[in-house]
Structures are given as structure tokens and as C-alpha cells.
């Protein structure tokens, strides 16, 4: 669910036609040749006319995105959002955490000065539900009934395991009537899927 643009890519003397997708940690280019550029390898990013010029540890690569898009991508690459920003967490929010999340996340929440509880209340604005297995998703119907109005539910689950997959999480959330709207990398080992109550049911 990143930013996508039809464009040209220039790698050395080669000019490729296709689509570039800017994700949280990488740029994926699909076209004459498929490319995957990890943002962690980018040393510099600048805009020259319609081109986004990236200097990486493995050489230079450019994307012809148009000036406005190139500037937008350069800003995102040079100033990546923090985990809390990606999750929509701001000072003063009422948050509930169901299950166990990593200790580092708890410390991040403390620095943001949000109210965190283990139970979902009427004024809860964001709920985090940690599900390590497909079986644990059985708690979801009860959690979904407690979510009111525009409150958001993030289901945090492990990456790359057969015991619980993205398809399992999506199916469980949709079965309760919730609508999936966003996915982010929660940590190197976990993914977070965001659900909300559909407007018609609020």
C-alpha cells in the first residue's frame, strides 16, 4: 500500500520502462527488468528535473517520476516516518493493548504520552491486538463488538509463519464486519493490519 508511479528507470546506461512502487523499506520496479532497491542502501536522494536520483551503496539509480512526485519520494526516503507515526499515534490518544507486544513499543508509547490500558473502554481510540497464532484470532469477534465509532483496530501478527498468515488475519477481521484499510511493518518480525468499523455501521 505504498506510492506507485508509471515511469522510466535508469541504471547505468540502461533505461527501463515500467512501474515503481515506494514502500516503507524498499522501492520495487516492475517492467522490462524487475528491480528491488532497499532504502537502507540509499546514501543520498536528490531531484534533477523530472528525475529522482538515488546514490546507493551499489551505484546510482534514477526514476523519471515528474518533479512533484520525485520531490515527494525524496522527502519520504530522506525523512522516513517513525513507527508511531505510521500507526497514527499522537499525544493524548486513548489506547488499549490486548495481548503482548514487544517492550520497545511500550517504551515508545510512554515517550508519546498516550493513555494505555489493557481493556477497551468507550473512549478508546486505537486498539492493538497481538495475535501470535490463528487460534488466538478467535478473540476477535468479542474485540470487534467493543470498538465504537471511528476507533481503529491494529492486529499485530508474526511475519512468515504458516500458523498465522495475512489471509487468516484479513478473513477474521472481515468476518466480524470490520474493514481493512492499511498494512504496515510493525517490526522486523511482525506486521500490523489496520481495521475500522465501516461508516454504515458506526
Protein described:
- It is a single chain.
- By secondary structure, the chain is of the alpha+beta class.
- The chain has two domains: 3-80, Roll (PH-domain like); 84-201, Rossmann fold (3-Layer(aba) Sandwich), CATH 3.40.50.
- It has five helices and 13 strands.
- The strands form two sheets. It has a seven-stranded antiparallel sheet. Strands 9-8-10-11-13-12 form a six-stranded mixed sheet, with helices on one face.
- β12 (178-185) and β13 (190-197) form a beta hairpin.
- The longest helix is centred in the middle third of the chain and has 12 residues, at 67-78.
- The chain is elongated and about 60 Å long.
- The relative contact order is 0.11.
Write the layout of secondary structure elements.
Elements: E1 3-11, E2 14-22, E3 26-31, E4 35-38, E5 42-48, E6 51-56, E7 59-64, H1 67-78, H2 83-86, E8 94-98, H3 103-112, E9 115-117, E10 126-130, H4 140-146, E11 152-158, H5 166-175, E12 178-185, E13 190-197
Parallel strand pairs: 8-9, 8-10, 10-11
Antiparallel strand pairs: 1-2, 1-7, 2-3, 3-4, 5-6, 6-7, 11-13, 12-13
Question: What keywords describe this structure?
Answer:
202 residues; Rossmann fold; elongated; PH-domain like; 5 helices; 6-stranded mixed sheet; 21% helix; alpha+beta; 13 strands; 7-stranded antiparallel sheet
Amino acid at each position: 500500500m505504498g506510492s506507485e508511479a508509471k515511469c522510466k528507470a535508469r541504471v547505468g546506461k540502461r533505461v527501463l520502462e515500467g512501474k515503481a512502487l515506494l514502500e516503507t523499506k524498499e522501492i520495487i520496479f516492475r517492467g522490462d527488468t524487475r528491480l528491488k532497491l532497499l532504502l537502507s542502501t540509499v546514501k543520498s536522494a536528490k531531484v534533477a528535473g523530472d528525475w529522482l536520483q538515488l546514490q546507493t551503496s551499489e551505484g546510482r539509480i534514477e526514476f523519471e517520476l515528474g518533479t512533484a512526485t520525485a520531490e515527494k519520494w525524496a522527502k519520504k526516503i530522506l525523512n522516513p516516518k517513525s513507527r508511531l507515526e505510521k500507526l497514527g499515534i499522537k499525544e493524548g490518544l486513548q489506547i488499549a493493548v490486548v495481548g503482548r507486544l514487544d517492550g520497545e513499543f511500550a517504551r515508545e508509547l510512554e515517550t508519546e504520552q498516550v493513555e494505555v490500558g489493557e481493556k477497551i473502554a468507550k473512549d478508546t481510540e486505537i486498539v492493538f491486538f497481538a495475535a501470535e497464532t490463528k487460534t488466538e484470532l478467535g478473540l476477535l469477534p468479542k474485540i470487534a463488538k467493543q470498538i465504537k465509532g471511528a476507533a481503529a483496530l491494529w492486529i499485530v501478527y508474526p511475519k512468515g509463519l504458516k500458523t498465522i498468515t495475512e489471509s487468516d488475519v484479513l478473513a477474521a477481521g472481515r468476518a466480524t464486519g470490520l474493514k481493512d484499510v492499511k498494512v504496515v511493518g510493525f517490526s522486523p518480525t511482525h506486521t500490523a493490519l489496520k481495521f475500522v468499523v465501516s461508516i454504515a455501521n458506526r
